Amino acid sequence: xxxxxxxxxxxxMAMGFQGKVFGxxxxxxxxxxxxxxxxxxxxxxxxxxxxxxxxxxxxPADPTYLPDRHHLKIGMMVGNPxxxxxxxxxxxxxxxxxxxxDLVWDEDSSSYVFDQNFRGNCTLCHDFxxxxxxxxxxxxxxxNCQACHGAIVDNIGDSHxxxxxxxxxxxxxxxxxxxxxxxxxxxSCTFCHNSGTTSDNIVVVKNIxxxxxxxxxxxxxxxxxxxxxxxxxxxxxxxxxxxxxCENCHGVSSLxxxxxxxxxxxxxxxxxxxxxxxxxxAQEDCWGCHGFTAMAAGAPFSxxxxxxxSDLSDVLFTAGVDTQLTLxxxxxxxxxxxxxxxxxxxxxxxxxxxxxxxxxxxxxAIEQNTIRVMMPATLLPGNYLLRAVKGDKxxxxxxxSVLPAVVIASAACNGGMATVTGNGFSQYLEAAGSGTxxxxxxxxxxxxRKTTVTRDCSVQxxxxxxxxxxxxxxxxxxxxxxxxxxxxxxxxxxxTRR
Length: 498
Hints:
Structural class: alpha+beta
């Protein structure tokens, strides 16, 4: 009888907590990661969050960033699909200048002029759902959600923990029933993640729109990621364990490690934050999902809070130069209770190249919302993904590029024929306005009337490391202008200037 009484008390408590209503949701504040919205309705400010411009400004942080990211593909094999309008320009199948740019006939000069505008159909590579629909072999359609979102979600089929027991009174529901789906009673995802405008003025949509707008609806397999199905395209909507499908991407380990710094005190301490800034900041956060539960700090599998990067101090770097980089975001550090007292967990900056090689950067300073790291001079030119990593939790990926240093190692001229050796010269295109030239400077006049005259040289050969050109006669210095920068060098032997 005593045991039955305790069970009745617990049920009454559960029903009481299920009826508790809080003032903030829905929808909850959008402080962490990508706002609750369908990716097929992105606007520019959403795209540049990851592509390293400065939202909500319309001008990139560095206006050369996106062109240089594409210029780094020169010499690489042309991808499939590709937005390049002339993908077969190079018989070797690699990207060259004319893969993406055109030569336009200029009547005034009776010559071809290089068109610096990209005339290709960018939407072939960058359509309305660029990461979820385009590449059938890409991470999204393979269920690799963490490739872009970091550990704020889980990957499909990666063997992360998904409960197998029958849902109980405290098991979260994906959403309320149709009769009360707009209810603000806690106990389901929609308690916090429902449509409306947040207190910080971000418009979000319902979960069904968020997930159906993801672009992964190409096959019965993808429907099965979120729904229990019986037969082809027949979805069982009434199963009580529907939450187990949600946990394919939103498992316990990821959900219980999502938290922002609610009071801006530069510290994240689970169980001691304001509610509705994450999943483990306050007891109300637990009630939001489970109806009632223990203190947030004791959430199962909690530990390293998932770090999130929101901005970078720079996105373009030069090979051969040590450069300090500042990452701005949240949860770069967080405090947990260890066996002998509080422990502070810290993130590291990590970059990954196109081949999957990972390099851990040296941290020079770290706080909850900033990390300062050193980009080493030894990095090879190319495009990289940058993340903050704390234990087994990775942040979202940000795109950075390392450009080759344009450096003249030696320059010589004999009888008007110039030879320049060095690095970072990239490719040459014989057309006005191409941005690739070799020039000779001549100092003319005497004393105070001395001026410098610059003349174009006729390029004979051009590789990434050597240029030969006919300059007519030898001058005082030589200038290389490549797509990645410029460098000049004085000619060493005045006796060869003819």
